[in-house]
Design a protein that fits this description.
CATH architecture: Alpha-Beta Complex
Radius of gyration: 17 Å
CATH class: Alpha Beta
Number of strands: 6
Structural class: alpha/beta
Strand content: 15-25%
Number of helices: 5
Low-confidence stretches: none
Shape: globular
Length: 201
Amino acid sequence: MRLLLLGTRNPGKVKEITSILGDAGWYFSSLREFPDVAVAEENGATYSENAIAKARFYAQATGLVALADDSGLEVEVLNGAPGVFSARYAGDNASDADRRILLLSELSKTMSTNRRARFVAVVAIADPAGAVLNVSEGICSGSINFAPRGDGGFGYDPLFVPNGYTQTFAELPESVKNVISHRARALMSAKLFLEHQFPSA
């Protein structure tokens, strides 16, 4: 059995990843099944550095091939913020709602009508020896809504409206989001790697 560890404890992210990689020929486990494994540090300057560090750490800690991602929201008028600090934007113990409130507050301070933004995701796969097997990137451009809308997704999803749509990520059905999102695009590339480098027996 080929088992791929998903380097996250976020149930929303686990659901999203498994729905995209589900038919790649692997079985999946997540950090929720490894409660004793510590949280990997995310002190890199880029999404790629953080994703690679997490994939290596979790692969070595569990003895499994591990997939980890790092992603962020980049708002043009905020000079790319919150960027790599998206998950810690309002402090380490802040909720998703806290981060959304802060982002809208910072946007309002600019007095700008520019709402352009983009989501960026990098997915890394590493083996238990610490070797990086694959790194892929996905980008989804859009804009920031004036107020949260929708109950789906997580993080900044209720604020982000992808280009070509009128609904936020939190309003779009999973069947759409899991094709156009930044993470979906990075994961589709990772899926091709998993299928071709580890073909089914």
